[in-house]
Amino acid sequence: MINDTKKYSSGMRNFIDASRDLEKRVEGCSSEGHVQPNTSKNICEYCFQHLIYSTPITARILKCRPNSKSLHNLTIREIVEFSQKEVSGQMEWDFINGAEELANPLKD
Q1: How far apart are CA 67 and CA 88, in angstroms?
Q2: Which structural domain, as residue segments, surrounds residue 31?
Q3: Is residue 47 a part of any domain in this protein?
């Protein structure tokens, strides 16, 4: 984590501070449950994480796998690992978007 933020622009300092705050929010929602779940948007409006993550790319792989020579040799373990990476990427985007939202609360 960045300790000395003085050398950064004010916008970057805001983003770093927002990231620190968001880490605490995500931790809290992960351990205690989502604070402000919005089921219609599938997002927690407190920690900015999805309530339920989907894996559309993995679903396409599974759908095409029986008919594709290149995908046919994928093991279940490889598909599960890919699915976990797909969700992990979505969580990272959620975090970046959430930190940006906290850093720029007046942004439309």
Answers
A1: 28
A2: 10-103
A3: yes
The number of helices, as runs of H, and strands, as runs of E, in the chain is 4, 2
Burial grade of 13 (CB within 10 A; 0-12, 13-18, 19 or more)? middle
Dump pLDDT digits (tens) for 29-87. Answer: 999 999 999 999 999 999 999 999 999 998 988 888 777 766 777 788 888 999 999 99
Q: Which two tokens stand for residue 93?
A: 């985007």
Q: What is the DSSP string of 37-65?
A: EETTTTEETTT--BSS---HHHHHHHHHG
Look at residue 3 and tell me if it is in a domain.
no
State how many domains the chain has: 1
- Domain for residue 75, yes or no? yes
